[in-house]
Design goal:
- The structure is a homodimer.
- The first copy, chain A, is an alpha/beta fold.
- The first copy, chain A, has 5 helices and 7 strands, in the order αβββαβαβααββ.
- Chain A has helices at residues 2-5, 51-74, 91-94, 119-132, 134-141, and strands at 10-20, 23-28, 34-36, 81-89, 106-113, 145-147, 150-152.
- In chain A, strand 1 and strand 2 (23-28) form a beta hairpin.
- The longest helix of chain A is centred in the middle third of the chain and has 24 residues, at 51-74.
- In chain A, helix 2 (51-74) crosses helix 4 (119-132).
- In chain A, the strands form 2 sheets. In chain A, strands 4, 5, 6 and 7 form a 4-stranded mixed β-sheet that branches.
- Chain A is globular, with a radius of gyration of 18 Å.
- At the A-B interface, strand 1, strand 2, helix 2, strand 4 and helix 3 of A face strand 1, strand 2, helix 2, strand 4 and helix 3 of B.
- Strand 1 (10-20) of chain A pairs antiparallel with strand 4 (81-89) of chain B.
Chain lengths: 153, 153
């Protein structure tokens, strides 16, 4: 497999334990545990975001990393950065209904940038970020409908 | 769009703010903020897991939710539950190298169950969970190579 011939790969590993009910405590390196749960109406105790909320949070974090990286490369002046990520899910997928997507149907990623840079440079930044961001491409390659507005703060 | 004709959809929304460097604080409902960062060698301050570690954590949490749900449906006796999720990434993808996957190349999900149930029932549980788990299907539909062992604790 090509993967194993490539020595530049990064390996990430996390370890989860069910704490109670549908709640998981996940250990990542030596950081504080990540607590994942479901709201009470989904049978949880609401001790933390649910798994798909964490996927959206990861997308928000990934946009920050990639926007910071690409603005550095471009010499793009950037102040504050905010993201709002909205995903829609059909719960029948999780219940096993055939023909219904299990993962998100669509995800909207709205990005707000504090910048005086011209519109064309903002567009150039967006294209680079969307081409390279791992979470954006994970959703895109899975066939999730992606959209969003990039605007000024 | 089919999505909008369906009234049973669940909408999830998260809001992220860049705190400093590549660090994001993500607000999910009224829960404690999710802190996302990168290790120092990636330009961060290591204040929390990185975005792709959160995707793996979400997979761990999703397996707990789905295994709990399906064991209830099956009347499957289950004690402790642990998951180890390992993903490999090629960092050249994030740097924009053409032809290199941006998201995971492969993900290994190892599941350990404390149970006396027979092998066939464990296999039946696994098939149901993999067919229905949103994060499993997100990775699968994106073309990530998925594997893993289900064993007893």
């Amino acid at each position: 497999m090509a993967v194993e011939e490539n020595t530049s790969l990064i390996t990430l590993r996390v370890r989860g334990k069910r704490v109670s009910g549908v709640q998981t405590s996940v250990q990542v390196r030596n950081l504080s545990p990540v607590l994942i749960d479901e709201p009470r109406q989904m049978g949880g105790e609401d001790a933390g975001p649910n798994p798909m909320e964490y996927v959206l949070a990861a997308f928000s974090g990934c946009l920050t990393v990639m926007i910071t990286q690409v603005t550095h490369e471009m010499g793009f002046q950037l102040g504050d950065l905010q993201t709002t990520i909205t995903g829609t899910l059909d719960p029948r997928g999780m219940m096993g209904t055939p023909g219904v997507r299990r993962e998100f149907q669509q995800v909207i990623a709205d990005v707000q940038l504090q910048t005086e840079e011209p519109k064309e440079r903002v567009q150039q930044l967006r294209e680079q970020v969307e081409a390279r961001c791992p979470v954006h491409n994970l959703l895109k390659d899975a066939g999730v409908v992606l959209s969003g507005e990039w605007s000024r703060l």
